[in-house]
Amino acid sequence: MNAKVWLVGAGPGDPELLTLKAVRALREADVVLIDDLVNDAVLEHCTGARIIAVGKRGGCRSTPQEFIHRLMLRYARQGKCVVRLKGGDPCIFGRGGEEAQWLRERGVETELVNGITAGLAGATQCDIPLTLRGVARGVTLVTAHTQDGSSLNWQALAQGGTTLVIYMGVAKLSEIREQLLAGAMAADTPVAMIENASLPHQRECRSSLMAMEEDACAFELKSPAILVIGAVAASASRSLWEHDLPAMTADRSA
User: Fold this and answer.
1) Is residue 254 in a domain?
2) Contact 181/209 with Cβ under 8 angstroms?
3) Residue 194, in any domain of the structure
4) Distance (Å, rounded) from C-alpha 134 to C-alpha 241?
5) Would you put residue 59 in left (φ > 0), alpha (ψ -120 to 50) or beta?
6) N or C: which end of the chain has fewer CB within 10 A?
């Protein structure tokens, strides 16, 4: 493999969800720059590559993006094959687009490799179809954390008629609830809060829009987690809710 930077999605955590193309890139890489949320088991495909941690986590000390850019450029100019390994999909809240543009502007060959995003994998593991004929005609992926602190168009999201999947929303449950209610989303809209999507210790908490903040607190919901909001969140056949909370806090989406 010639000098090149691969921006690779490692998926949400389960190493069996890694794509064959991602495995090929890892096996041929000279240098692999990994995010915090990448499962260590994925690195078994790196044969002889130098592994460099460049984690970025909300609320924690993170590797500056500019430093990551310079590392990729440095190794590529040394003639090495570089893999930038990201949790989930590199182009869904993973900065894959901006990294690819930055590298290409400097003459570096770059290729993006998709990974399964946590919103899809987490919902599937909980038997939640994000689209369902006659129930949900589409799905909208959004992040509750914006770079400039600006607010989303919550009214449009509330009235869009699609399943809403929210990333990085654990710290903003109160704002999400109030904004969606203000946008005329029904208070009893089903909500699934899914922690550690696709991993053996994945947990799910079923609730409703009105009750989700209180229930998340009782459930001790922690990041990384995604929120699935919409009618499909009530259509699962499997739930861990009753095993994780006292009987007095039963599933409120019923």
Assistant:
1) no
2) yes
3) yes
4) 26
5) left
6) C
Give the chain's mean pLDDT.
Answer: 89
Do 245 and 126 belong together in one domain? Answer: yes
Residue 63 and residue 54: Cα distance in Å, rounded? 5
Residue 148 — pLDDT band, cuts 50, 70, 90?
confident
Does 12 have pLDDT greater than 60? yes
CA 191 to chain centre: 17
> Is 86 marked active-site?
no
Name the residue range of residue 48's domain.
4-113
Domain assignment present for 163: yes
Residues 139 and 224 in one domain: yes
pTM reported for the whole predicted model? 0.87
Which residue among the candidates 72, 168, 185, 193 is catalytic per the annotation?
168
Query: Which of 56, 72, 193, 215 is labelled catalytic?
Result: 56
Q: Could you tell me if 240 and 146 lie in one domain?
A: yes
Among the listed residues 30, 35, 89, 215, the single catalytic one is: 35
- For the segment 72-81, what is each residue's pLDDT rounded down to a tens digit? 999 999 999 9
Any catalytic annotation for residue 127? no
Residues 142 and 82 in one domain: no
Catalytic residue list contains 56: yes
Q: Are 149 and 40 within one domain?
A: no
